[in-house]
Amino acid sequence: MDEAAIRNEVLQALKSVAPEVEPERLRCDRPLREEVDLDSMDWLRFMASLHRRLGVSIPEEDYRRLDRIDVLVDYLRRRLA
């Protein structure tokens, strides 16, 4: 799966948790949880949605470092390789 497809899956998963999100307005240089105002339960639902969509297990200890869209997309690309 290429980077654009992974990014699309990430944005779709995000919209499933936060339907008000406008992907074109997200800034990749800001922490995602601040940008979208996700609480801890929303974040868990987002991670679970990514797991279902991509079949990638994301260990809980990795959640903290997956704070930006670009970082998350790169992480998922490497896990899918």
Automatic annotation (TrEMBL):
The UniProt record lists the Carrier domain at 4-80
Name the Pfam families on file.
PP-binding
The protein's matches in InterPro entries, at most eight in alphabetical order, are given as: ACP-like_sf (IPR036736), PP-bd_ACP (IPR009081)
Q: What is this protein called?
A: Acyl carrier protein
Q: Which organism is it from?
A: Pseudomonas indica
